[in-house]
């Protein structure tokens, strides 16, 4: 059940009770089933979804005394996550072209799928830290994360951008042109597994510095194995949505998608081919550095 103090306005408060959780962004409502705790979230005036796993996950859980791990990081606990998320987004140096793309995408059906501004900036930072020349993205959509990375690649660099949606890629390509990075982006329309296998067949194993995985979640294990072959030792495979709106930590949620992400996270935790760090940026990103 949804109730709201000013439903339809960009700054309204939504209270979620019963068997529904909702997260709202510009003019679009997404409701999914989950636990019955009452939640509050604020509509976004600026076109990005609140992908705050922690905010949705705040519970009566006060942490584990035995392990010494607190319930939530101090800043989030003090704030509830809401203002802090807004504050973090306001600290992003978002180029105008990315802001325009984000705002256009947020009005589209499925606009919630694009990464948040801090994620885009974080990916660009990782590409710079790696001195990346060759990157791959699996799951481009309208191109926010791909553009964030392509913009920081050197002129000699290349991003292979994979997606199966012609319609989404058309928007992405328009923005690549507007940003003047088209020559650095190799757009591949089709099923991403086929594209990755083609790259391996043409001898690209170990040639990539960084890969970003943000497509169909149940295929993550297969993409990951292919991407791990494509990146060089010391290169990064970055996996998005590994917290799945916080549901991975809620033992009452047992749907197959959540469970597949939990299983995949556990697999990464134990994979000794990589150095591994799960960071709570956006909806959770796993950094997998190939050893
Ligand atoms: C979460 S969105 C990607 C968001 C994007 N990274 C961004 O920042 O806007 C997932 C994308 O994966 C694509 N996708 C899903 N399954 C795919 C597959 N099997 N092969 C290629 N692309 C796929 C979808 O078409 C969709 O555009």
TrEMBL record:
SUPFAM superfamilies: S-adenosyl-L-methionine-dependent methyltransferases. It comes from the Eukaryota. Keywords: Methyltransferase, S-adenosyl-L-methionine, Transferase. Gene3D superfamilies: Vaccinia Virus protein VP39. The keyword Methyltransferase applies. InterPro entries: Cation-dep_OMT, SAM-dependent_MTases_sf, SAM_O-MeTrfase. One of its GO terms (biological process) is methylation. GO terms for molecular function: methyltransferase activity. PROSITE patterns: SAM_OMT_I. Belongs to the class I-like SAM-binding methyltransferase superfamily. Cation-dependent O-methyltransferase family. This is Caffeoyl-CoA O-methyltransferase.
